[in-house]
Design a protein that fits this description.
With about 90 residues, the protein is of the alpha+beta class. The protein is built from 3 helices and 3 strands. It has a 3-stranded antiparallel β-sheet. The longest helix is centred in the last third of the chain and has 9 residues.
């Protein structure tokens, strides 16, 4: 996942280790480290990473990535394209 992951402009790729919050909802499969994109005030999970972890049942309830606040496509929709009409799903787990 790490090698093919890119971040939106202004965000840097870092590693995030899923913890108790994710494991409580998605089980022991969520005991993993994934690449994510971080900035000073925003962060997002790249869509290719979400697609990969969804194969393991993690974030499987997030079907509309363009409308999910924590996906990079959702980040780009609101913060890059400035879509002020977007109704974003702000739940994480």
């Amino acid at each position: 996942m790490d090698e093919v992951t890119t971040c939106p402009s202004g965000l840097a790729k870092m590693h995030y280790t899923m913890g108790q919050k994710e494991q409580s909802k998605y089980g022991s499969y969520a005991n993993m480290t994934i690449p994510v994109c971080f900035g000073m005030e925003q962060s997002c999970i790249p869509n290719n990473v979400i697609a990969e972890v969804q194969k393991r049942g993690i974030f499987s309830d997030k079907t509309n990535l363009d409308g999910w606040k924590y996906s990079c496509s959702g980040y780009e929709r609101v913060n890059v394209q400035r879509d002020l009409t977007a109704q974003m799903d702000a739940t994480y787990v």
